Amino acid sequence: MKDSTLLDAINQLTGCAQIIAALETAQIEFEKSRVAYETEKAKVSTRASATSIKTEVVKLIKKIVVYMRAMEIVEELKYNPFAITLNEIIADNNEVVKKRSEKTKKILQKQWTIALQSNKASFLYVTISM
Fold first, then answer.
1. Count of CA atoms in the C-beta half-sphere (13 A) of 109
2. What is residue 49's DSSP assignment?
3. pLDDT per residue over 28-53, tens digit each?
């Protein structure tokens, strides 16, 4: 407290000066914590999202596939085994994604069926195309 008119009253009250000092210290610590939080929050908001990373990875994979197809044509003996391996990896990953999307579709169909049945509309069955 910087107000000199209150200093006499503060000094007359037992423990008041210590409480005010503790409050000022707590306020300073809180401000430091808030600044640290805002700094961390700003760092998090500048990180790339999973969707943007996925987009960049897909672009790179497409470039690699185009390059491998060209190299396979130019030097088949040298690049054919790697191109075959690359095709197998891509096919395996596509199969995993397909299974995952089919599982999601089944879950959504089940949820819709349950929701419709709970609304006394059990005669309807909704399919969701994905």
1. 12
2. P
3. 999 999 999 998 888 877 777 788 88
